[in-house]
Amino acid sequence: MDAKPQNAALEALIQRNHAARHALAGQVQTLRHRMDLPARLNENIRNHRTLWFAGSTALGLLASSFFRKKSPAPTAAPRSRKGLVGLALTTAFTLAKPAIKSWLWKEAQKRILPRNTQRPR
To answer: Whose C-alpha in 24, 50, 64, 72 is 20 to 30 A from the C-alpha of 34?
Structure first.
């Protein structure tokens, strides 16, 4: 009779061990799922597509407003001379520019850059 109660107690311990392992395996699986961030993110995106789309759109608009160049203040266009007198003065000045530059360069050479002339001995 002594053998049956020990076997019953042993069977109860085996059943208890099996139940504990089964519960522990479930907890390990749950912990692995909680620690797997890419899988959780993928699952979250699939389950809440509209929220992710709206959030990414709003964030994109906000980021683009930070990096957008400020538009310059509108400036008034300079008033151009109209008429025959303005056209004549503009043309004369354009044609005279090379001659004026040449004259200024010659004068600068005369006054600023003295010529190296050697005196006879």
So the answer is: 50
Are 56 and 18 found together in one domain?
A: yes
pTM of this structure: 0.37
| Structural domain total, the chain | 2
HSE, CB side, 13 Å, CA atoms: give it for residue 58. 6
Q: At 4, is the pLDDT very low, low, confident or very high (cuts 50, 70, 90)?
A: low
Whether 3 is in a domain gets the answer no
User: Cα(10)–Cα(106) distance, rounded to whole angstroms?
Assistant: 119
First to last CA, the chain: 148
How many Å apart are CA 43 and CA 49, to the nearest integer? 10
Question: Does the CA dihedral 6-11-12-16 come out positive or negative?
Answer: positive
